[in-house]
C-alpha cells in the first residue's frame, strides 16, 4: 500500500554540527524500497549545495560538501577499471545554462581516484560525463566559436557556443572521437531566438544545447534541447544516421511516431530497441513527462510505451532525467522543479520527494551502493544521551556503547544520527556492527562526567538548554 503523508526530516545533527544538508521531504512511499538516492542540489537558500546520498526515508547517508568543491551535477554510481565508483561533476555553473570544469571519480570510501578533463585545450561541460567502457568516457563541451549569425538575425561577425562531444581515454586523456554540431546541422533550424546574444565570445549564442550523449554499439545517441531532436551519430564518420524529431517543423523526422516532445533532456537508448527521454514539454503542454519509447530502427517506427507525470503534475522548465531501472521501473528527477519520483514497472508512483523551495538538481539517480567512510565516527554527549554518526557509511546496522570492551548500551542505527541513553559516568567508546555482527568501526574514547550523565536541563530565555560536548 502506498501512503501519502509529509515527512520533513529534521537534518540538524548533534554529532556533526558542521553539516547542514538540504532536507529531502518525502511525500509518497510504498515502503520496501532498496538502494540509495543520488542528488546534486543547488540554488534556493541552501547552506551547503553539493553532492549527496539519501535513503528512501529521506535520511542523509553522505554529505559530499567539502569533497566536491564545485557544482555537483550528475552524481551517480559507475564502473571504472573494475571498481564500483562514484562520479560527480566538479564544475562552475554559469547563467548561460552550462558549466565548465571536470569530473571526479571517488572510491567507495569517498577518496578521489582520478580527475578527468576534456583535454586538448577545451574545458568540459557538466551536461554529460558517462563511462562507456573500462577506460573510455563521453563528455560534452560548449566552445566559443566565431560564426556568421546574419541568417538568423544576429551579427555577421558573431559567436556561438558550439556544442561538442568527445569520447576520451580516461587514462591518457587522448581523444578517440569528436563531433561538432555546426559540421552537421543548419544554424537556421534552431528553435532558440538569438535576441541580443552572439556579439562576443563571452556572450555567445547557445543555438544547439547538447545535453546528453550515450553510446549504441560503435555509434552515439545525443539530445539537442534547442532543436527538440534526438540524433544517432555514426561513430566513424560523424554523419547523422537518423533523427527523432519532436516539436520542430524545420527538421524532418526519420521516424513515424504519434507523440510529441519538446526541449527534452537525457536521451538513452537501451539494447537498441527502447529509448527513454525526459520531456520538458516546454511549449506543447503544461505538464512535463518521462517517456519510454519503443524504437524500431530498421523500419523507422517509434511507439510511445509510457508517459509518466509527477504526482504534483510539474512543468519543468529546464534539466531533468529519466533513469530506466533493471526491474522495469523508472527513477525520474524533475530538474528545475526540485523533485524526484520512482515508478514501478507498471508506471505507478511508489515514491516521491521534494527538495527545499527553489532548490533543484540537474539529474537524480537510484543505485545500490556500499560506502566505507574515511572519516572518524562522530560522537557528541548531551544530557545523558550519546549522539553518533558516520558520514557516508552504509554498513553499520547497530551502534553499541562499550566500557572496557564490554557493551553497556546498544541501539539499531536510525538514519544518519542515532541517539543512545547513557546516564552513568565513565570512559567509553561507540562501536559499529554490520548486519553480520562484525565490527566495522569505532569512535575514539570519551569520558562522561557526572554532570554530563544527568539528563537535567536548565531554562535560558525560556528555552531548555544543555551543555553539549563533542568527542574529539
TrEMBL record:
Pfam families this protein is in?
Arylsulfotran_2 (PF14269)
Origin, by domain of life?
A: Eukaryota
What SUPFAM superfamilies has UniProt attached to this entry? Calcium-dependent phosphotriesterase
Q: Which InterPro entries match?
A: Arylsulfate_ST, ASST-like
The name of this protein is ASST-domain-containing protein
Organism whose genome encodes this protein: Diutina rugosa
Taxonomic classification: Eukaryota, Fungi, Dikarya, Ascomycota, Saccharomycotina
Amino acid at each position: 500500500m502506498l501512503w501519502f503523508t509529509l515527512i520533513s526530516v529534521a537534518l540538524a545533527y548533534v554529532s556533526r554540527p558542521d553539516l547542514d544538508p538540504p532536507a529531502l521531504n518525502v511525500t509518497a512511499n510504498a515502503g520496501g524500497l532498496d538502494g540509495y538516492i543520488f542528488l546534486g542540489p543547488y540554488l534556493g537558500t541552501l547552506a551547503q549545495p553539493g553532492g549527496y546520498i539519501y535513503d528512501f526515508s529521506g535520511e542523509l547517508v553522505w554529505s559530499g560538501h567539502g569533497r566536491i568543491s564545485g557544482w555537483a551535477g550528475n552524481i551517480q554510481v559507475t564502473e571504472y577499471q573494475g571498481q564500483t565508483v562514484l562520479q560527480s561533476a566538479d564544475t562552475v555553473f554559469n547563467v548561460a545554462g552550462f558549466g565548465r570544469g571536470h569530473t571526479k571519480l571517488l572510491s567507495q570510501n569517498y577518496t578521489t581516484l582520478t580527475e578527468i578533463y576534456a583535454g586538448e585545450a577545451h574545458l568540459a561541460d557538466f551536461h554529460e560525463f558517462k563511462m562507456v567502457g573500462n577506460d573510455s568516457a563521453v563528455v560534452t563541451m560548449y566552445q566559443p566559436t566565431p560564426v556568421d549569425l546574419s541568417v538568423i538575425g544576429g551579427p555577421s561577425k558573431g559567436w556561438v557556443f558550439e556544442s561538442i562531444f568527445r569520447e576520451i581515454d580516461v587514462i591518457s586523456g587522448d581523444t578517440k572521437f569528436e563531433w561538432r554540431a555546426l559540421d552537421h546541422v543548419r544554424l537556421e533550424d534552431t528553435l532558440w531566438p538569438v535576441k541580443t546574444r552572439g556579439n562576443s565570445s563571452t556572450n555567445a549564442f547557445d543555438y544547439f544545447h547538447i545535453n546528453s550523449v550515450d553510446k549504441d554499439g560503435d555509434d552515439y545517441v545525443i539530445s539537442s534541447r534547442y532543436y527538440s531532436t534526438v540524433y544517432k551519430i555514426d561513430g566513424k564518420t560523424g554523419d547523422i544516421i537518423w533523427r527523432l524529431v519532436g516539436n520542430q517543423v524545420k527538421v524532418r523526422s526519420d521516424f513515424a511516431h504519434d507523440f510529441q516532445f519538446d526541449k527534452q533532456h537525457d536521451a538513452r537508448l537501451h539494447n537498441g530497441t527502447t529509448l527513454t527521454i525526459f520531456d520538458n514539454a516546454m511549449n506543447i503542454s503544461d505538464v512535463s513527462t518521462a517517456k519510454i519509447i519503443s524504437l524500431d530502427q530498421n523500419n523507422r517506427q517509434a511507439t510511445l510505451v509510457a508517459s509518466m507525470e509527477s504526482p504534483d503534475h510539474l512543468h519543468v522548465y529546464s534539466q531533468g532525467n529519466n533513469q530506466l531501472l533493471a526491474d522495469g521501473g523508472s527513477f525520474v528527477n524533475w530538474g528545475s522543479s526540485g523533485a524526484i519520483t520512482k515508478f514501478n514497472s507498471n508506471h505507478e508512483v511508489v515514491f516521491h520527494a521534494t527538495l527545499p523551495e527553489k532548490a533543484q538538481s540537474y539529474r537524480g539517480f537510484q543505485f545500490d551502493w556500499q560506502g566505507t567512510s574515511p572519516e572518524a565516527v562522530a560522537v557528541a554527549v548531551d544530557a545523558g544521551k550519546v549522539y553518533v554518526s558516520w558520514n557516508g557509511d552504509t554498513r553499520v546496522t547497530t551502534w553499541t556503547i562499550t566500557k572496557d570492551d564490554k557493551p553497556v548500551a546498544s541501539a539499531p542505527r536510525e538514519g544518519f544520527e542515532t541517539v543512545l541513553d547513557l546516564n552513568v559516568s565513565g570512559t567509553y567508546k561507540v562501536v559499529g556492527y554490520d548486519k553480520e555482527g562484525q565490527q566495522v568501526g569505532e569512535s575514539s574514547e570519551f569520558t562522561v562526567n557526572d554532570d554530563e550523565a544527568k539528563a537535567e536541563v536548565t531554562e535560558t530565555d525560556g528555552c531548555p538548554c544543555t551543555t553539549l560536548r563533542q568527542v574529539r
